[in-house]
Amino acid sequence: MVTVEEVQKAQRVTREKSMIKKHYMHLTEEILKENPKIMALSLDARQDMVVVEVPKLGKEAATKAIKE
């Protein structure tokens, strides 16, 4: 199990090494229909979606990296 401190450290290291200043999100009609609150001012709806989607993206990235 990963601790909160380890996650925060990884995020900090990633941010410091990255030259990315802005982050963009690709939204499709399907995503918007499944998550109608995503465009609300509340961060909770977006974070709820991220909790589900980030592991999927990680799995895809790992699978792609292993194939290469």
TrEMBL record:
Pathway: Secondary metabolite biosynthesis; flavonoid biosynthesis. Its EC number is 2.3.1.74. GO terms for biological process: polyketide biosynthetic process. Residues 9-68 form the Chalcone/stilbene synthase N-terminal domain. Pfam families: Chal_sti_synt_N. One of its GO terms (molecular function) is naringenin-chalcone synthase activity. InterPro entries: Chalcone/stilbene_synt_N, Polyketide_synthase_type-III, Thiolase-like. It is an enzyme of class 2 (transferase). The primary product of this enzyme is 4,2',4',6'-tetrahydroxychalcone (also termed naringenin-chalcone or chalcone) which can under specific conditions spontaneously isomerize into naringenin. This is chalcone synthase. It comes from Escallonia herrerae.
